[in-house]
Design brief:
The protein has 416 residues and is α+β, with helices and mostly antiparallel strands. It contains nine helices and 14 strands. The protein folds into two domains: 152 residues, no CATH class; 235 residues, Porin (Beta Barrel), CATH 2.40.160.40. The protein has a twelve-stranded antiparallel barrel with strand order 1-2-3-5-6-7-8-9-11-12-13-14.
C-alpha cells in the first residue's frame, strides 16, 4: 500500500517534539514523505497498480536533492522544474539519462532535446499535451507520467521554454509555422510528409486524378518533393488510365519568425512529360514551375497561406505559359482546451490564367475541413469541394480529399 494521506504538519508530532539538533533533518524527512504521498498515487500504472522504475527515479532525484541540500522544492524557473521533475529520465543535458541510471528501456520515441531536427518541428502545444496528460495521451510510451496535478499551467510553460534551450541552432523554423495543409495552396514550411490526394469529378465526364506526394526535409530550411499523378477518365463509356506529368521540386525557406508568425519560402520544380497528352494526362512538354509561398499565423490560431507562381513550358506552341495565385484562410479549433483532436475549416480561393491574348482568369473556390485522425496527430485527413466560379464551361465541380502522414513523427501504425 502507498503512504496514507495523513502527513499533516500539525498531526506529525515527532517533528515538533524532536530536539533542535534533529529538527532540520526531521523536517527534510517530512517533506520527502509529503512529496511521495502526493506523487505516488498519481504515478501508479492504471492497469496493475505498479510504479514504473522511471518514476521512482524521479522521486529519488527530487527527494535526494531536498535531503542533501535544497530542503524544499524549487519550481520558480523552467530550469528548476526540469532539474526537479525531468532530469531523472531526460538527463541534465536533455539527451536522456543512461539506461544504467534511469533503470528503464528507452522507447524508440524517446526524445533527444539537443536534436534540432527532431525538436524544432514539434509545437509547444505537443509538449504541453504530453506533460499534462502523460505520454499515452499522444500515443507515446506510458513511461512519461502526467504532471497535471503536480505543475501549474504557468510552470508547464516555463519548463517547455527551458526544453527549447537545448537546441543551440537558431536557423530551424519552428513547428508552429507548419500550418494545416490546404488542398491546393502550397505552404512555406519544409516538411517530412507523404500525401495521397484525390479529386473526383462531381459533374461532367467521370474521372479521377490522384497525386502521390513525397516531401522530405534536408538541412535547416530545405525540402525536396516528388509528385506522381495517376489519372483515370471515362471517354465515351471507355475508361482510360495512366500516369500524369511527374514533378520534382526543391523548396527553401528564405525567412521565418515565430515572433511575427511569418514564414516565406521559394520553390522551383520540373514537370517531366510522363503523361499521355492525347488522353489529356500530360502537357506533352517539359515544364518549369516556380512559386513563392508566404504564410501568416495569428495568435487566435487563424492562418492565411498564399502562393504565387508561374508554369513555364519549354515549348509554348504545345502548352501555354500561365500564372497562378492561391490563398487559403483557416481557423484551427482543438478539443480538450486545445490539447486534443484538431479541426481546421479552411476556404481556398484559386486563380489561374494562361499568358495568351484574350485569355480569361479561371476562379475557383474550395471550402474544406481538415481533421487530425491519430492521437499523435501525425495522420490527418481533409475533405472539400472545388467549385468553378468563372469560365465554368468544360470545368467540372470536384470532390477533393487527402490523407496525410507526417512520417517524421512515427510509423503509420503508431500513435493511435
Amino acid at each position: 500500500m502507498g503512504v496514507q494521506k495523513t502527513w499533516n504538519h500539525k498531526e506529525y508530532s515527532p517533528i515538533e517534539q524532536s530536539s533542535d539538533a534533529y529538527r532540520p533533518f526531521n523536517k527534510a524527512i517530512f517533506r520527502i514523505l509529503e512529496y511521495i504521498d502526493f506523487f505516488l498515487p498519481r504515478m501508479r500504472n492504471e492497469r496493475n497498480g505498479t510504479i514504473p522504475a522511471s518514476l521512482l527515479a524521479i522521486i529519488i532525484t527530487v527527494t535526494g536533492g531536498m535531503l542533501f541540500g535544497q530542503g524544499s522544492l524549487q519550481l520558480d524557473t523552467g530550469e528548476h522544474i526540469y532539474k526537479t521533475a525531468c532530469v531523472a529520465c531526460h538527463g541534465p543535458d536533455g539527451k536522456g539519462m543512461p539506461k544504467s541510471i534511469a533503470a528503464f528501456e528507452p522507447p524508440d520515441s524517446f526524445p533527444d532535446f539537443t536534436r534540432c531536427d527532431q525538436t524544432t518541428a514539434e509545437l509547444d502545444n505537443d509538449y504541453r499535451a504530453v506533460i499534462v496528460h502523460g505520454g499515452q495521451y499522444r500515443g507515446f510510451s506510458q513511461i512519461m507520467p502526467s504532471f497535471k496535478q503536480a505543475l501549474t499551467p504557468e510552470q508547464i510553460n516555463k519548463v517547455i521554454g527551458y526544453l527549447r534551450h537545448f537546441c543551440r541552432e537558431q536557423g530551424w523554423p519552428r513547428g508552429e509555422l507548419n500550418l494545416p495543409r490546404a488542398m491546393v495552396t502550397e505552404k512555406a514550411y519544409p516538411e517530412d510528409e507523404a500525401v495521397v490526394s484525390t479529386a473526383v469529378n462531381a459533374t461532367g465526364a467521370p474521372g479521377t486524378e490522384t497525386h502521390i506526394i513525397h516531401e522530405q526535409r534536408f538541412g535547416e530550411k530545405n525540402q525536396i518533393e516528388v509528385d506522381v499523378p495517376i489519372n483515370f477518365q471515362d471517354e465515351s463509356h471507355t475508361w482510360y488510365g495512366g500516369v500524369g506529368d511527374t514533378t520534382f521540386g526543391v523548396k527553401r525557406v528564405m525567412f521565418s519568425s515565430l515572433r511575427w508568425g511569418s514564414i516565406l519560402a521559394l520553390q522551383g520544380s520540373v514537370l517531366v512529360p510522363s503523361g499521355n497528352r492525347a488522353r489529356g494526362f500530360g502537357s506533352g512538354t517539359t515544364t518549369f514551375e516556380t512559386f513563392a509561398a508566404y504564410d501568416q499565423l495569428f495568435r487566435t490560431n487563424t492562418s492565411i497561406q498564399t502562393q504565387f507562381g508561374a508554369d513555364l513550358p519549354r515549348h509554348t506552341q504545345i502548352a501555354p505559359q500561365s500564372i497562378f495565385f492561391n490563398t487559403a484562410i483557416g481557423q484551427t479549433i482543438a478539443a480538450d482546451h486545445g490539447l486534443g483532436r484538431a479541426w481546421t475549416p479552411m476556404f481556398e480561393f484559386l486563380a489561374q490564367r494562361d499568358l495568351v491574348d484574350a485569355a480569361k482568369t479561371n476562379w475557383d473556390v474550395l471550402p474544406q475541413m481538415q481533421v487530425t485522425i491519430s492521437h499523435r496527430q501525425h495522420i490527418r485527413g481533409d475533405l472539400g469541394l472545388r467549385v468553378p466560379v468563372s469560365n465554368t464551361a468544360g470545368r467540372a465541380v470536384q470532390l477533393q480529399l487527402y490523407l496525410l502522414w507526417d512520417w517524421q513523427d512515427g510509423k503509420i501504425n503508431e500513435g493511435w
